[in-house]
C-alpha cells in the first residue's frame, strides 16, 4: 500500500486517516514523551481498546464528552478513541477554571467529563463536583479499556459536527465553535503541505493539546508519517533537554515561542541551542518582521509563520521556499480551497476548513455574511502574489482625532528597538482626542531605562507619521498573556490603563 500525503488528506474522517496511516507505517513512531514512544500501529490499536472501554461506560456515537487534560500521549489516545466512536468531543484548555469550565459544560450539555485528577496543584475532580458535572472520570495514566469486538462500525462520513472548541472568552463568555472531522483535516493539511516536511522530520507540541492546534498538528503527523515530542509542561530552558534528546527538527507555536527560543539562543551565541533544529513554524499572533530576521540571523534556522483561529485552524501558511520579504512581512498564502475575500479592509473566509458556526445560532448568523463568508474581524490585504498581509484587528484600530491608526504598524517598528523585548500598542479613551496611543513595553533583558521621549525619537527616525506617535508609554515586567499560545491580552491592558487614566482625572 503506497499513498501520498496529498491523497491521505482526502480521508473522510479522522479515524479513517488514523487507520490508513497505521496500515502504511505501523511501526514508525508518532508520539514521543520523556522515555515513552507510541507508534502509528499502537495508536490505532490502543485507541480502539479505549473506545471499547468508553463504549462500556455508555458513550455512543453523538454522545457529548468534554475533556480537560494536559498534553500527554494518553490525551491523544482518548481523543482518537472518541473519534473512533463518532462521539462529540469538547476539549477544554487545562488552565481554565470554574467560570469557563462551567460555561463549557452547560452550553455543550456534556454527558461525560474527563479530568486529570490533581494536576499542577489543582484538584480537577473537586472543581467538577462543584460544577455538578455529569459522568466525571479520570484520564491521566489509566484510560478506560475494553474489547474492540464490541464496537460498532466507525463513522463513515466526516461532515457531521463532532467537535466543540472554545474561543478564549477574553472579553465575554467563550463561544462554542462547531467543527467536523473534515474541517480539521483540511486545516491540518494546509499546515502540512505548506511546510514541505518529510518522514525524516521530528516535530514538537509545546502547546495545550486541547487547543485547536492539537488536531491541526496531529493531522500533519498522520499525513507525513513522522513523530512529535509532547511537552506536558513547557518552560525554557528546562524543555531544551527534550528537544535535544529526540532530535527535534521543527519547533514553534507562536510569536511568543519564537522569542523564548531566541532568548535562550542569545545565552550561547555561536552554538545552536537545538542542534537538529532547522525550522520554526507557528501562528496565532502577529509576527513583527524583526522577529523573523532575528531568528534567521541568530538561530540559523528558517521561520515560517501562518494565520489561523479557533474558527478556522489554518487559513494561510508561509512556506520555506517563499521569498525573504514574504516570510518576514506576510502570513503566507492560502491552500487550494480556501477563499479569502477582503471587504472594507476586513478578511473574510470561505472553505472546507471553516467551522460550521457556533453553538449559539444568533452568533452564527452574525458571524457569516450573506454569501457564507466568515467575518474574521481581522484587517488586511492580499498582495499580487496572493500572500496575505494582516494590518491588525478591527478593534485594534485607534481613532485619534478622527484619524485611523494601526497598532500593528507601531508595534512592528518598536519590536526592532534594542531595548524592547516585546510590545503591545492600545488605544485609551481621551476626552480631547477620542483615543490616545499608548505603547506598553516589556524591556529587553539588560536593557537601559526607556522613556517616552526615547520612543518618540526612535519612531520619528523610523519615519512614523507624527499623528501616530504614542502619547503614553508604560514599561512592564511582563505583558499579560493567555496560557495557550501566549497571545498578549490587550483587553487587560486597556482595562488597566483606562482605569488608571480615569482615576487620574
Question: Please, could you describe this protein's structure?
Answer:
- It is a single chain.
- The chain has about 500 residues and is of the alpha/beta class.
- Among the domains are: about 5-30 and about 40-180, Rossmann fold (3-Layer(aba) Sandwich), CATH 3.40.50; about 400-505, ANL, C-terminal domain (GMP Synthetase, Chain A, domain 3, 2-Layer Sandwich), CATH 3.30.300.
- Helix content is about 35%, strand content about 25%.
- The chain has 16 helices and 26 strands.
- The strands form 8 sheets. Strands 2-1-12-11 form a 4-stranded mixed beta sheet, with helices on both faces. Strands 4-3-5-8 form a 4-stranded parallel beta sheet, sandwiched between helices. It has a 4-stranded mixed beta sheet with strand order 13-14-15-16.
- A hairpin with a 2-residue loop joins strand 17 (about 340-345) and strand 18.
- The longest helix is centred in the first third of the chain and has 18 residues, at about 40-55.
- The radius of gyration is 23 Å and the shape is globular.
Largest beta sheet: strand ordering:
2-1-12-11
Residues in helices, as a percent range: 25-40%
The rounded Rg comes to: 23 Å
| Second rung of CATH, namely the architecture of the domain at 5-28 and 39-180 | 3-Layer(aba) Sandwich
Distinct helical segment count: 16
Instruction: Output the CATH topology of the domain at 5-28 and 39-180.
Output: Rossmann fold
Low-confidence stretches: 501-505
Amino- and carboxy-terminal Cα gap: 73 Å
Strand content of the residues, in percent? 25-35%
Largest sheet: 4 strands, mixed
- Give the integer mean of the pLDDT values: 92
Number of strands: 26
Look at the structure and give the CATH class of the domain at 5-28 and 39-180: Alpha Beta
Shape: globular
Category by helix and strand content = alpha/beta
